[in-house]
Amino acid sequence: DVVMTQSPLSLPVTLGQPASISCRSSQSFVHSDGNTYLDWFQQRPGQSPRRLIYKVSNRDSGVPDRFSGSGSGTDFTLKISRVEAEDVGVYYCMQGTHWPWTFGQGTKVEIK
Amino acid sequence: EVHLVESGGGLVQPGGSLRLSCAASGFTFSTSWMGWVRQVPGKGLEWVATISQDGNEKYYVDSVKGRFTISRDNAQNSLYLQMNSLRAEDATVYYCARCVAHSAAFWGRGTLVTVSS
Predict the structure, then answer these.
(1) B47 touches chain A (CB under 8 A)
(2) How many CA atoms lie within 13 A of B9 on its CB side?
């Protein structure tokens, strides 16, 4: 299985400041169709997960543009340009190229 | 608007069975891959199973192979997960998900499975 490793696991941030989460995979996962299926999810307290980013850098509909995804190969990053109170929660990366699709352990974002 | 509503969770004894259901609306169910994801306490999220639009392709995580069966009824816009030989480690929240671009683009609210004697 492709192992997804996130860092940090806990991220205290100041409102209005940027935040960055790293996701590294145990192997490259470029699909035979040429796409890299790397996604980011947000899970707010008490809610179901919500997809923010798909295929590395594509924002889902309704996702604020302060969220951005980047990366290639085995190294990927989710950035929040200016953290807002509603961004508190756990963030997960996920690869959807090789079955079983696998998630990172999650990064808990909280306000300092 | 996409709507996914899970049901069928509950308390079951170790070795018992449960059938989870997911009622889908707001999109063309018959053209969507679907899946089940569970939230493992202390371990995060785990893809359990996924199924193709016509039900001919099914994939399972190793830990549930031979015990769980994913299926769908496109006429009823419904997804199912038959869970047999349940273990303590299967106890958690199960989410129904609509797959778009090899990913869980939309999630239900989840249904809780408890395995205990």
Answers:
(1) yes
(2) 18
